[in-house]
Design a protein that fits this description.
It is built from three helices and 15 strands. The protein has 207 residues and is mainly beta.
């Protein structure tokens, strides 16, 4: 990661980059290449980076804290924070491509089952067909442009704050956890029972 790359991605918020110290400078083929450490997640978020774009430096692990923000911690601290409930792992093993006016790659992780299909009939609805081999959990990252739940949000215009999703498993409403929120995506954890076949995520539109 270099200064020019960060400047081009967000030219209005680059002051923190000036404080970066080169991690390594290499000369090869008559050119000099300078490598910089990855800035802390706070500065990247402030510069407009999305949750999924943020990585940690080598020998550190990326977690999501109780406020839905990314943090970078030492490996020996990671398991302790997760065990005590202070953070959750940020792991999405698979992407599912879905088409709704344009293609979307849905990042998710599922335990206790597999995803068979996803469809999005509207901007406030996502239907996920699953094959569950037992009780399990789905962690899913929802692009706001695909499905969202925002007060006073209709016809693609947001003029209010976020609202809660409704989540149904086999047509019955269930509790869920929303653990990651950015301007681009919202991340949910949804538990399901053995033999569950459908998860429906519904947004809301108030006018």
């Amino acid at each position: 990661m270099n200064k020019e790359l960060i400047r081009l991605m967000n030219p209005t918020k680059i002051l923190f980059v000036l404080a970066l110290t080169p991690l390594l400078t290499v000369t090869a083929f008559g050119a000099e290449y300078t490598f910089y450490p990855i800035p802390p997640p706070y500065y990247l978020l402030e510069s407009g980076w999305d949750l999924y774009q943020i990585d940690c430096n080598e020998n550190m692990e990326k977690l999501i804290n109780l406020h839905g923000k990314p943090i970078c911690v030492f490996p020996e601290s990671s398991s302790k924070l997760i065990e005590k409930g202070y953070a959750q792992p940020y792991v999405f093993d698979i992407e599912f491509k879905i088409w709704h006016q344009e293609p979307f790659d849905i990042k998710y992780r599922i335990e206790g089952g597999t995803i068979q299909n996803m469809t999005s009939p509207s901007v406030v609805e996502l239907i996920i067909n699953i094959d569950s081999q037992g009780p399990g959990k789905l962690d899913i990252e929802l692009p706001r442009a695909l499905v969202d739940s925002v007060m006073d949000y209709c016809d693609g215009e947001r003029i209010g704050p976020d609202d809660a999703f409704f989540v149904l498993v086999d047509h019955e409403e269930v509790d869920f956890q929303e653990w990651g929120v950015t301007d681009v995506v919202r991340s949910l954890s949804i538990a399901f029972n053995e033999n569950s076949t459908e998860i429906e995520i519904l947004g809301i539109c108030l006018v």
